Structures are given as structure tokens and as C-alpha cells.
Amino acid sequence: MSKLEVNAVSKSFGDNEVLRDVSFSISDGEFVSLLGPSGSGKSTLFRIIGGIAQPSSGTVKLDSKEITGKPGSISYTPQSPSLMPWRTILNNVLLGQEITGSRDEHKALEMIERAGLKGYENSYPHELSGGMKQRVSFIRSMLSPQGLILLDEPFSALDEFTRLDMQKWLLSIWELYQRSILFVTHNIEEALFLSDRIIILSAKPASVKKEFIIPFKRPRDERILLSEEFLQ
Ligand code: ADP
Ligand code: MG
Asked: How far is it, in rounded angstroms, from Cα 90 to Cα 71?
């Protein structure tokens, strides 16, 4: 069954045509990377899928239900994590649930611990490193009930080692919670390592140039092991 269906989405800003007739879908539990050069319209497409921008035409469906232009339908992690500086880590995590009306403090605390952030529940964002803030931002999306997570270049600002650490963590969360993931990146290596399938966008106006199923795809647990071995 398709978790997400993007159907003939086009978007122009004035006479700047950014997206042309973009269509693809994501199955339940699948990890899909959306790859394209900078400026090709990845974040624009992302905001449309996240419901915070309207397409000029086309539709977005989640679990076969149309959600085009409806914010809050899918949990959305923007390119730079925007934690609220005046809220504690726990309250930042709970914010994701407040939006969807499913507050569960016990689960939030458990996820904070799983992310290696035990003891930081009552800290404020400025007390955490970049990688830690990124993990808080993830937890917020992981706890949302929709089962689809959108990540827009989440690791692009991190150094290589922190990045690998975060990739490992993301894979283990994916394994554990069986989410579908749409991961936007311009890093080909990262897409090859993480995903089940890669969707490549052509340069502006972007449309789907190619869908690439990774032929030598490793099982999830092997991907986790590989990054663990490298980090040791
Ligand atoms: P990417 O994420 O692939 O780097 P973006 O989606 O950020 O690309 O940008 C694609 C194009 O869309 C750029 O030409 C950018 O100027 C334009 N664009 C994005 N958002 C807006 C906006 N809110 N208003 C006008 N133009 C925009
Ligand atoms: Mg972008």
C-alpha cells in the first residue's frame, strides 16, 4: 500500500517555474531519498508535501486521503531544526505531539533516553550541540502518529563523524518504529547508503528524472552494523 502519493505536482513562483508535473509514491515502511542539485526545488516540493505550501496544481495523498495544502497532516522537519529556545528539551519534544493532539510524556522521555539525551530533559536548546539538537528535532517527528517522516537535508550542517553517528541513529529508529521516510539530500553517497530507493529530480523546472531502486540494498540491520563498525 502507498503511504504517500505525490501526483502531478507543479509549482511556479510568478514566472519562475520550479516544479513540473512531479509524481512518485512511497510504500509503507520504505526509506526513500529525494536527490537533486541545489536550487532544483527539493525544499519547495517538501513544503508542499508537508502541507505548508500550496502547489500550483497536483495533489498529495497520505494513506489514500487527500491532504494537499493541509499543514499538520505530516510531521515535517525543516532544513535547519527550529527548536523553541524558551522551551526545555522535553517540552520541545512534546510540542510535536501537542500539534497532533496525542500527548504522551512517558514515550517522549523514553525517546529522549534512546537518543542518548538522558539528563537533558530539562535543559534548553542552547545547552546542546548541533547533533544533539538535530536528534531532538527528529524525536519530535518520530513521535508523531502519521508514520511518515519528512527530513530535509537534516545532516548537511554536521561534520562527517557526527553525520555517520546520526545516520546510524536514524536507521535504528527506522528499524524500531517501522516508519516510512522521505529523506531529501544532495549527497549521493548518503542516499546510496541509507535508502531503499532514490528519486532523482532533474534541474529546474524539476520533474522526476529517474527512480533508482538500489540493487545491492543492504538489510537495515546490516546498514546499522556497518556504520557502527566504522565509528568504533
Ligand atoms: P532546493 O531545496 O532544491 O535547493 P528550493 O526549493 O529551495 O531548492 O528552491 C527552488 C527555487 O524555488 C529557487 O529558484 C527559489 O528561488 C525558488 N523559491 C523557493 N521558495 C520560494 C518562495 N517562497 N518565493 C519565491 N521563490 C521561491
Ligand atoms: Mg533545500
From this structure: 23
- Note the ligand closest to the C-alpha atom of 79: 2
Report which listed range, 47-51, 58-62, 173-177, is most confident: 58-62
Mean pLDDT of 115-135: 90
3-state secondary structure of 47: helix
Ligand 1 pocket test, candidate residues 15, 18, 182, most atoms within 8 A of CB: 18
Examine the predicted complex and report whether its ipTM is higher than 0.95: yes
Residue of 98, 159, 103 lying closest to 131 (CA atoms): 159
Q: 60 CA distance to ligand 1 centroid (A)?
A: 19
* Alpha-carbon gap, residue 101 to 85, rounded angstroms: 22
Q: Cβ of 89: how many Cβ atoms within 10 Å?
A: 26
* H helix runs in the chain, sequence order: 42-49, 89-100, 105-114, 130-142, 160-177, 188-194, 220-231
pTM, full prediction:
0.83
